[in-house]
Design a protein that fits this description.
54% of the residues lie in helices and 0% in strands. The chain is mostly helical and 61 residues long.
């Protein structure tokens, strides 16, 4: 049996990146708080810094 892969909205991703960069807490702490896999938020923060405002285009449901 395989694990179900969760998907997050662009809004969730952006808010998570903002929380990680502006809260004063470590990225790992924010990952645990949000229930994200280890390292996932760090990747998103790097992508946001690299891509700027357009880092998470709207997802289509």
């Amino acid at each position: 049996m395989s694990a179900t892969r969760r998907t997050h909205s662009s809004e969730f991703k952006s808010e998570a990146v903002e929380l990680a960069t502006r809260s004063g807490r470590s990225i790992a702490e924010v990952e645990r708080e949000l229930g994200l896999s280890e390292g996932l938020l760090k990747q998103r923060v790097r992508k946001a810094k690299r891509d700027g405002e357009q880092h998470f285009p709207a997802t289509v449901a």
